What does this fold into?
Amino acid sequence: DGSTVGAAPATAQGRLGSSGLSTSRIGFKGTEDLGGGLSASFQLEGKINVDTGENANYDRPAGEANANSNYFFGRQSWVGLSGNFGKLQLGKTWTSFGDVKGKFEHADNTNVGVTADVWGTGASYDNNKPNQLKYTLPAMSGLTASSGYAFGEDKTASVSAKDTTSLNITYDNGGPFAVGYGYQTEG
It folds into this structure.
């Protein structure tokens, strides 16, 4: 009769889902002119599963990169002030090192980026820190610099919180040549 005794039935599953290369996002941002060359801005951005509407920011094991990414606005959540002095951001934003790494990484910080060995970031690198104060100088003839300090929230009874310090300097005048340097330490 052609049947096989005990054979498992063939199964299949159709699926809609968010991209595995770079997650789907939902976000809100705005800027308000305060006059006198000053402006206030904000950005709230999170990952979302477009097929279900669920929050795609998931808990990772403690100690793993982006371990705190379970917040709804887990990508960015900051307020800022800009003017002739540059830009000041407060909240969860890309580190200064993350900015220059994303600018020069071949896949622009997507999940297919394979240059971690070049950047020396290792598995515990976190490019998006909460509780950060970040200052970026205004660009002058293509040259700019940025520094950030993120207060750690992982203090225990016997271990101090691990703060993060980052900085970068970048030259890019829109031509065929650009160069950048970034540094980050997670204490």
